[in-house]
Amino acid sequence: MNKDSAGIGRPEPALHQGIPQRSRSLAADRRFVAGGSRRRPQAHPPAQDWRQSMKAAIRDSATLLEHLGLAGQVPLCRDEAFPTFVPPEFLARIRPGDPDDPLLRQVLAVADEEQTVAGFAADPVGDLEATACQGLLQKYDGRALMITTAACGIHCRYCFRREFPYGDMSGVGTHWNDAIDFLSQRKDIDEVLLSGGDPLTLTDDVLGGLLDRLNQIEHVRRIRLHSRMPIVIPSRVTPELVSMLRESRATSWMVVHCNHASEIDGDVEASIAALVDGGIPVLNQAVLLRGVNDDVATLETLCRRMIDLRVQPYYLHQLDRVRGAAHFEVSPDRGQAIVKELRKRLPGYAVPTYVQEQCGAASKTPIADT
């Protein structure tokens, strides 16, 4: 095992209905197609339509292994209660023939998921206890989170909502009315997070209709979208989407989710450039995952790629202890050592805050390095 200066080496492998169409103009911003200077990636939309990518996703792990030349080489989960879902763009970035590829590890339903491990549960972060009304969670002062949809552009095996009861909580159209009414009455809430699922799996008409309703609530000052789509299906970032977010009265923020620099190709660079050039602040959050990014060099490379793309590294999350994901867990001690070394290697603004979400806490809890 090769070790770096911190003595930390690489680990052993171990379409919606219900919201009326908007009257807002969605004319494309010229800056979207113009790109940037100073060696920035060209901000152009990839040719593939994002909805076709969703339809073309691989939906079982055996087929995924066949595509990668790994049929029969990895023990798989016998019952995929949380189904496989891998779009073709993400599949193209996985190294064929490598069962330990860090991108493959994030999406492959392996037999380890069947282990029963004490402390791992269906709702590890207390989402259900934080339910304010149908489709709305409130854990922290001044902010609330809307469950906009159950759909995602990819199914990450460590997802803390892999057992979330979406049938009871999410929906569009009239199912959002309770959440909108709640937010309208709570003048102490000035920021709304759109989550799911993934809000960017909503069509522009549906998402735009929701933004219009939120923009009518005067005390809502910021709308923060948490999405993996700019990374896994970058064609979702269209000129129309960028214009919609830029024209929002409430300031739009985008939080993307990228765990490894190999997730970033030219189309991802273009999707990020489109957002940033369009005036949308972009943050990245990652999860510390065993066998994916639990070494200094990998996270350093990821953080450097992010700041080169004008994306702020935001959070590095300790794994949420959801049932079926124990094989991804990295000890907090190891995480602290990694972050301590990152602080030596990177400028301060490039080091994400290492945090853990704890049920009932007033905020994300920082895990301080010592």
From TrEMBL:
NCBIfam families registered for this protein in UniProt: EFP_modif_epmB, KamA family radical SAM protein
Modified residue annotations for N6-(pyridoxal phosphate)lysine: K364
Reactions performed catalytically: L-lysine = D-beta-lysine
Residues involved in [4Fe-4S] cluster binding: C152, C156, C159
Family as reported in the entry's similarity comment: Belongs to the radical SAM superfamily. KamA family.
UniProt-recorded Gene Ontology molecular function terms: 4 iron, 4 sulfur cluster binding; isomerase activity; metal ion binding
Record's protein name: L-lysine 2,3-aminomutase
SUPFAM superfamilies: Radical SAM enzymes
Superkingdom of source: Bacteria
Keywords (A to Z) from UniProt: 4Fe-4S, Iron, Iron-sulfur, Isomerase, Metal-binding, Pyridoxal phosphate, S-adenosyl-L-methionine
Residue ranges constituting the Radical SAM core domain according to the UniProt record: 138-350
Annotated stretches, region: Disordered: 1-25
Classification via Pfam families: Radical_SAM
Cofactors named for this entry: pyridoxal 5'-phosphate; [4Fe-4S] cluster
InterPro entries: Aldolase_TIM (IPR013785), EpmB (IPR022462), Lys_aminomutase/Glu_NH3_mut (IPR003739), rSAM (IPR007197), rSAM_sf (IPR058240)
